[in-house]
Amino acid sequence: QRDDVPSFEGESLLSSAEVQKDFGKYYSTFGSFNVQFSRVQKSARRTPEEKSRENFFLTFFNSGLEWDSTDNILNPTRGFVVSTGLESSFRALLSDVNYFKGTVELRGYKRLYKMILAKRITVGVIQPFGSTGTFDIPIFKRFFAGGSTSMRGFPFQKLGPLSDGGDPLGGNSLLVGSFEVRYPIYGNFGGVVFFDYGNVFADEWSFPLGDIKYAPGVGLRYDTIIGPVRFDVGYALNPEPGIRRVQFFISIGQAF
């Protein structure tokens, strides 16, 4: 596939074998083994010493476990979701890098009169090991945030470390969260008031609270059979230099 995103440009070829299993009404799990070849044609470097590498060959395992008690997959109004994921790559299996990449996400929804209270928090860490250092993690495996489904006060992938030219660099730690109040307006139209927070951090296991960014905002929803069409306006309270404070997004489906 062709990748053309703010953080990098390149091409990837991925082969995967996956097994999925549901346990009862709420639990599901999956596991996969993946082989990936990627060519990065354009990306920014985090430090002058960082390796300027173009080709990567990765073999990695993916696994995940989820508990989901929500009432609607497209537009939940009550229930909780707890999901975990672990990705692991080993040089012993011919991969170019050693790392563990873990994520945990919690989401909750509660009806209060005619309103829906929604909240979410996502935490992630990439831990390199062995001969792989912090800056050896390929850019397409790092964490990124910003955009319509994470921090709506920031452009797509523009939350976190940036190069001198303003290109997103990604990081090895992630912390993002949201609070939303969803309410009906008239017919199929609804409104949202939200407050997003978080950041992407360069180092693993690094979550300095003084670097957390904040973005309140409002939105409009129109319910359809394929989910809500949404228009959001986010305002970054403490953006990095060069980032416009006000962002606009149009998309399909709830932010979370």
Structure overview:
Helices cover 0% and strands 55% of the residues. The protein has a single domain, classed as membrane protein fhac: a member of the omp85/tpsb transporter family (Porin). The chain has no helices and twelve strands. The protein is globular. With 256 residues, the protein is mostly beta strands. Strands 1-2-3-4-5-6-7-8-9-10-11-12 form a twelve-stranded antiparallel beta sheet, with no helix packed on it.
Write a brief structural summary:
The protein has 256 residues and is an all-beta fold. The chain contains no helices and 12 strands.
Draw up the topology in text.
Blueprint lengths: L1 E4 L2 E16 L3 E17 L11 E14 L10 E11 L9 E14 L2 E14 L44 E14 L2 E13 L11 E10 L6 E7 L10 E7 L4
* CATH homologous superfamily (4th level) name: membrane protein fhac: a member of the omp85/tpsb transporter family
The secondary-structure element order is EEEEEEEEEEEE
CATH topology: Porin
Range of strand content = over 45%
Distance between the termini: 26 Å
**CATH architectural label:** Beta Barrel
What's the total helix number? 0
The beta-strand count equals 12
Question: What spatial order of strands do you see in the largest sheet?
Answer: 1-2-3-4-5-6-7-8-9-10-11-12
Morphology: globular
